[in-house]
Amino acid sequence: MKIYTRTGDAGKTGVIGGRVDKDDVRVEAYGTVDELNCFIGQAMGFLDAERDADLLADLLQIQHETFDCGSDLALLKQELRPYKVTAEMVDQLEAWIDKYDAETPDIQRFILPGGSQASSALHVCRTVCRRAERRVVTLARTQPINEEVRRYLNRLSDLFFTVARVANHRAGNGDVEYIRSAEVFRRKS
Protein backbone atom coordinates (compact mmCIF):
# COMPACT_ATOMS: atom_id res chain seq x y z
CA MET A 1 0.00 0.00 0.00
CA LYS A 2 1.28 3.45 -0.88
CA ILE A 3 1.12 6.16 1.77
CA TYR A 4 0.30 8.88 -0.76
CA THR A 5 -2.78 8.75 -2.98
CA ARG A 6 -2.74 12.17 -4.67
CA THR A 7 -6.52 12.33 -4.23
CA GLY A 8 -6.20 15.40 -1.99
CA ASP A 9 -4.00 17.42 -4.31
CA ALA A 10 -6.95 19.59 -5.38
CA GLY A 11 -7.85 20.53 -1.79
CA LYS A 12 -10.52 17.90 -1.10
CA THR A 13 -10.44 15.03 1.37
CA GLY A 14 -12.52 11.96 1.98
CA VAL A 15 -14.88 11.67 4.92
CA ILE A 16 -17.28 8.86 5.69
CA GLY A 17 -20.00 9.39 3.09
CA GLY A 18 -18.33 11.78 0.65
CA ARG A 19 -15.64 14.36 -0.03
CA VAL A 20 -15.28 17.84 1.43
CA ASP A 21 -12.82 20.71 1.30
CA LYS A 22 -9.76 20.18 3.46
CA ASP A 23 -10.60 23.34 5.42
CA ASP A 24 -14.23 22.28 6.00
CA VAL A 25 -15.41 22.81 9.58
CA ARG A 26 -15.88 19.03 9.90
CA VAL A 27 -12.25 18.38 8.92
CA GLU A 28 -11.13 21.14 11.28
CA ALA A 29 -13.04 19.46 14.13
CA TYR A 30 -11.74 15.92 13.65
CA GLY A 31 -8.30 17.23 12.71
CA THR A 32 -8.06 19.01 16.05
CA VAL A 33 -9.11 15.80 17.81
CA ASP A 34 -6.32 14.03 15.90
CA GLU A 35 -3.87 16.70 17.07
CA LEU A 36 -5.05 16.10 20.63
CA ASN A 37 -4.40 12.39 20.23
CA CYS A 38 -0.80 13.16 19.23
CA PHE A 39 -0.29 15.34 22.29
CA ILE A 40 -1.71 12.59 24.52
CA GLY A 41 0.93 10.23 23.15
CA GLN A 42 3.61 12.81 23.82
CA ALA A 43 2.41 13.37 27.40
CA MET A 44 2.46 9.62 28.01
CA GLY A 45 6.16 9.63 27.16
CA PHE A 46 6.83 11.89 30.17
CA LEU A 47 5.07 9.63 32.69
CA ASP A 48 6.89 7.03 34.79
CA ALA A 49 6.04 3.51 33.59
CA GLU A 50 5.82 2.05 37.10
CA ARG A 51 4.54 4.91 39.21
CA ASP A 52 2.01 6.04 36.60
CA ALA A 53 0.93 2.67 35.19
CA ASP A 54 -2.72 3.45 35.92
CA LEU A 55 -2.52 6.82 34.18
CA LEU A 56 -0.77 5.29 31.19
CA ALA A 57 -3.43 2.60 30.84
CA ASP A 58 -6.24 5.17 31.09
CA LEU A 59 -4.56 7.53 28.62
CA LEU A 60 -4.08 4.70 26.14
CA GLN A 61 -7.80 3.95 26.36
CA ILE A 62 -8.47 7.67 25.84
CA GLN A 63 -6.31 7.63 22.71
CA HIS A 64 -8.55 4.90 21.29
CA GLU A 65 -11.63 6.86 22.32
CA THR A 66 -10.41 10.13 20.79
CA PHE A 67 -9.88 8.17 17.58
CA ASP A 68 -13.53 7.12 17.95
CA CYS A 69 -14.45 10.80 18.39
CA GLY A 70 -12.67 11.66 15.16
CA SER A 71 -14.37 8.79 13.38
CA ASP A 72 -17.81 9.99 14.51
CA LEU A 73 -16.97 13.55 13.47
CA ALA A 74 -15.89 12.34 10.01
CA LEU A 75 -19.32 10.76 9.48
CA LEU A 76 -21.50 12.86 7.15
CA LYS A 77 -24.72 10.97 7.91
CA GLN A 78 -25.39 8.95 11.04
CA GLU A 79 -27.38 6.39 9.08
CA LEU A 80 -24.15 5.24 7.40
CA ARG A 81 -23.09 3.42 10.60
CA PRO A 82 -23.73 3.59 14.35
CA TYR A 83 -21.86 6.17 16.39
CA LYS A 84 -18.91 4.91 18.44
CA VAL A 85 -18.79 7.43 21.30
CA THR A 86 -21.34 6.66 24.01
CA ALA A 87 -22.64 8.10 27.27
CA GLU A 88 -20.87 5.26 29.10
CA MET A 89 -17.53 6.60 27.88
CA VAL A 90 -18.39 9.99 29.42
CA ASP A 91 -19.38 8.24 32.66
CA GLN A 92 -15.97 6.51 32.71
CA LEU A 93 -14.21 9.88 32.39
CA GLU A 94 -16.20 11.19 35.35
CA ALA A 95 -15.21 8.15 37.43
CA TRP A 96 -11.55 8.72 36.57
CA ILE A 97 -11.82 12.42 37.43
CA ASP A 98 -13.25 11.56 40.84
CA LYS A 99 -10.61 8.89 41.46
CA TYR A 100 -7.65 11.06 40.50
CA ASP A 101 -9.02 14.20 42.15
CA ALA A 102 -9.13 12.33 45.46
CA GLU A 103 -5.37 11.80 45.13
CA THR A 104 -4.50 15.50 45.03
CA PRO A 105 -4.54 18.20 47.70
CA ASP A 106 -7.41 20.66 47.83
CA ILE A 107 -7.15 23.32 45.20
CA GLN A 108 -7.38 26.93 46.39
CA ARG A 109 -6.36 29.11 43.46
CA PHE A 110 -6.13 28.97 39.71
CA ILE A 111 -3.32 26.69 38.55
CA LEU A 112 -0.63 27.60 36.03
CA PRO A 113 0.67 24.89 33.70
CA GLY A 114 4.04 23.73 34.93
CA GLY A 115 5.88 21.72 37.52
CA SER A 116 6.90 18.51 35.82
CA GLN A 117 7.23 17.77 32.11
CA ALA A 118 4.34 15.33 32.34
CA SER A 119 2.08 17.87 34.03
CA SER A 120 2.96 20.56 31.51
CA ALA A 121 2.28 18.17 28.61
CA LEU A 122 -1.07 17.16 30.12
CA HIS A 123 -2.01 20.85 30.37
CA VAL A 124 -1.24 21.15 26.65
CA CYS A 125 -3.66 18.24 26.14
CA ARG A 126 -6.25 20.14 28.17
CA THR A 127 -6.01 23.26 26.02
CA VAL A 128 -5.97 21.37 22.71
CA CYS A 129 -8.99 19.41 23.95
CA ARG A 130 -10.80 22.68 24.66
CA ARG A 131 -9.97 23.88 21.14
CA ALA A 132 -11.30 20.61 19.71
CA GLU A 133 -14.48 21.10 21.72
CA ARG A 134 -14.88 24.62 20.29
CA ARG A 135 -14.46 23.24 16.76
CA VAL A 136 -17.14 20.63 17.47
CA VAL A 137 -19.49 23.33 18.79
CA THR A 138 -18.98 25.27 15.56
CA LEU A 139 -19.64 22.14 13.48
CA ALA A 140 -22.80 21.33 15.44
CA ARG A 141 -24.29 24.73 14.59
CA THR A 142 -24.64 23.74 10.96
CA GLN A 143 -24.45 19.95 10.76
CA PRO A 144 -25.63 17.01 12.81
CA ILE A 145 -23.06 15.40 15.10
CA ASN A 146 -22.92 12.74 17.77
CA GLU A 147 -23.72 14.88 20.82
CA GLU A 148 -21.79 12.44 23.00
CA VAL A 149 -18.57 13.59 21.30
CA ARG A 150 -19.14 17.13 22.54
CA ARG A 151 -19.90 15.86 26.07
CA TYR A 152 -16.88 13.56 25.94
CA LEU A 153 -14.48 16.36 24.97
CA ASN A 154 -15.90 18.66 27.62
CA ARG A 155 -15.34 16.05 30.32
CA LEU A 156 -11.97 15.00 28.87
CA SER A 157 -10.50 18.47 29.33
CA ASP A 158 -11.51 18.29 33.01
CA LEU A 159 -9.74 14.95 33.26
CA PHE A 160 -6.56 16.42 31.75
CA PHE A 161 -6.61 19.20 34.35
CA THR A 162 -6.99 16.62 37.10
CA VAL A 163 -4.29 14.23 35.87
CA ALA A 164 -1.90 17.14 35.29
CA ARG A 165 -2.24 17.84 39.01
CA VAL A 166 -1.77 14.13 39.77
CA ALA A 167 1.39 14.01 37.67
CA ASN A 168 2.87 16.88 39.66
CA HIS A 169 1.75 15.42 42.98
CA ARG A 170 3.23 12.01 42.24
CA ALA A 171 6.50 13.61 41.13
CA GLY A 172 6.70 15.50 44.41
CA ASN A 173 5.90 18.87 42.85
CA GLY A 174 3.18 21.14 44.15
CA ASP A 175 0.74 22.95 41.94
CA VAL A 176 2.02 26.15 40.39
CA GLU A 177 -0.56 28.59 41.71
CA TYR A 178 -1.50 31.82 39.99
CA ILE A 179 -0.25 34.22 42.65
CA ARG A 180 -2.61 37.07 41.76
CA SER A 181 -5.62 34.82 42.33
CA ALA A 182 -7.81 35.03 45.38
CA GLU A 183 -8.92 31.76 46.90
CA VAL A 184 -11.58 30.85 44.38
CA PHE A 185 -12.22 27.16 44.94
CA ARG A 186 -14.11 25.46 47.74
CA ARG A 187 -12.49 22.65 49.65
CA LYS A 188 -13.30 19.08 48.68
CA SER A 189 -16.11 17.63 50.74
UniProtKB/TrEMBL annotation:
Keyword annotations of the record: ATP-binding, Cobalamin biosynthesis, Nucleotide-binding, Transferase
Pathway in which the depicted protein is active: Cofactor biosynthesis; adenosylcobalamin biosynthesis; adenosylcobalamin from cob(II)yrinate a,c-diamide: step 2/7
Domain of life: Bacteria
Pfam family, one: Cob_adeno_trans
Catalytic activity: 2 cob(II)alamin + reduced [electron-transfer flavoprotein] + 2 ATP = 2 adenosylcob(III)alamin + 2 triphosphate + oxidized [electron-transfer flavoprotein] + 3 H(+); 2 cob(II)yrinate a,c diamide + reduced [electron-transfer flavoprotein] + 2 ATP = 2 adenosylcob(III)yrinate a,c-diamide + 2 triphosphate + oxidized [electron-transfer flavoprotein] + 3 H(+)
UniProt-listed Enzyme Commission number(s): 2.5.1.17
Keyword Iron attributed: no
Domain Cobalamin adenosyltransferase-like: 3-167
Single annotated GO MF: corrinoid adenosyltransferase activity
Family: Belongs to the Cob(I)alamin adenosyltransferase family.
SUBUNIT field: Homotrimer.
Protein name: Corrinoid adenosyltransferase
Organism for this UniProt entry: Paenibacillus elgii
Lineage: Bacteria, Bacillati, Bacillota, Bacilli, Bacillales
